[in-house]
Amino acid sequence: MTHVIRIRPQRLALVWLTLGMLFFGYLGTLGLPDSVRGAQDASLPPLDQAKILLETGKPTKSIEVLEELIDSLPPPAILQQAYLLHATALQSTKQIPEALSVLQQLLEEFPFAPATNPARILLAELSIETKDYTQALSQLYLALDYATDQTSRRHVLQLIRQAEQENGNPLGAIKAALNEMMVVDPSQRLELEQLTQSIILQQLNEESLQEIIESYSTRYPGDIATIRLIELHTSRGDEVLAERDIRSFLNRFPSHPYAQTAMALLQSFISKIKVHPHILGVALPFSGPMKPYGNDLLNGIRLALDIAKEQWGLSSVGLVVKDTTTLNAPLRVEMQQLLNEFQPRAVIGPLLSREIRDLSRLPDDYATPFITPSSTLLNVRQYGSYWFNTAMTSSVQAKRLVEYATMKLGYHRFCVIYPKTSYGRELADMFAKEVIHSGGEVIAVEEYTEEQTDIGEQLAKLKVKDLAQYGLEEPEETRTGEERLVYTPGFDAVFLPGQPVHLAIIAAQLAFFDMNVPILGGNSWHNPELFRWAKQDLNGSIFVDGFFLNSPDPNVQMFIQRYRSQFHKDPSLFAVQAFDAATVVLETIRKGAQSGQDVWDQLVRRSDLPALSGFASFSSAGILNRRLYLLQVQNRNFLQLN
Fold first, then answer.
1. Strands 629-633 vs 614-618: parallel, antiparallel or unpaired
2. 322 and 419 share one domain
3. What percent of the residues of the chain are helix, what percent strand, and what percent coil, each to the nearest 5?
4. Helix (H) or strand (E) holding 554
5. Angle, CA of 235, 240 and 246, to the nearest 5°
6. What is the share, in percent, of the chain residues with pLDDT greater than 70?
7. Going by DSSP bridges, is the β-strand pair 519-521/542-545 parallel, antiparallel, or unpaired?
């Protein structure tokens, strides 16, 4: 049901009250004898005459008096009131554009006057009438900041609720209603709660429900939004998400009247999961700042399950999901409970490196592989032999980039310029180690802070180091007959593992120092922002990434189309890494794995595990060695090289 707030006649009385309270001493009383009402008394001030004319149903006469008053250039205290009353009179005669114009004039001339906020509110009301919701809402949210008494605040919030609803933003209407609840008495709260509940149950989509849950995670209306989300997922047959949301609800609202129903549903879902001969566990974050990553990762897992069912006929796998951000006990205890109750073939997760450290040797104790799809740890096996990692680590990036640069391009001498961040240091270190391991040479390594916009000093040092080994400076005669030294770098390429903004700055300065060599980078380059900052200096530069939306690979394009169709957005690298994690486990089940030990046996020995980009295998450090994409910058586009 749509609730519409109608603009009532009382608004005119509110204008009278505002004007009278502000300047009653100057204007005289508003309570006139009946003998005076309905007649224009020349002895009254013009503003009072206009008020009486408007009250007695003579708006045209009122407008004439007000226009004459405004033309007489009265004092500012009178003029601002005349503007406000003039706009009200124009509105009553349906001259809406003219009324809006008068109010705009008032706001321009008196931006901080007593009549300013009433003018904003009236301007918003007129904008709602003309369906200009953008202007209405901008004025209302500004008016709310200046509304000091509860009556005014409620009136503004009612208008915001109306404008948001009519503008097709039920989420904004809910937020206005919730704020309105704070300024009304308990008897009026019930009506607003019913309104809010009606909007949540009838109008909000899944994304808006999630936003309500995030904003009100442990209080009303987060409970109603979660219940609605459970109903949506259950009605669609999406029991994986329904089960996840029920667990979250019970964690946040254990004493809620709906808790008993939620528990019964959960037990029903658990029974259905346990019917499957094989169970795959998932431990990821689904609330808080890590929620977007958790959702992307779960999407990748679910898509892997769907494709395995279709292509391999693998319908015997159930999925049990644990939200690592809403736990009743420490993560280690919660994971022990999951392992004991469901005995999964493998667990995908957790997301963070510190969570892996917290769990430590738990996977080994239960002989159950844990595959993190996102940790940046270079060696997950330090915590046990049952740990695996499908994330694209800095070591994997460096290895693939150096391999291509040395074997395909014939580069052997490199310089490195990296940002002083943990990511920059790690990737620079991995790159240098891979260069040396491949028989190449690192001529110089320089660092910069992320605040720097000029790295001339670092480039000067780099040049000195290069000239001491392989670089050349030779004299050259200019067109004017003068002689200058021309620098020829002795290194083949420079590695820049920074962000797009730094990359653009450094590339331009490299050209200034005559260091016209190819530039190499990591997956931080893979960002449309690169083209906002960089010009032609980066053409031909090469970097690596674990996923490329425009890859011509038919398997990749099939994955992208399926992901878009199912989740209505493009897949991220996180989704791909989780897809690979689930796919390799499902492959072991397809090949006969009946236990966590069987899954582990295949993961550690096979070199033909089916990742999205092709066959892959796990290294001795537990990292998935998959094919990475070599991408080149070409005329504001990325081009796949391999």
1. unpaired
2. no
3. 55, 10, 30
4. helix 554-567
5. 75
6. 93
7. parallel
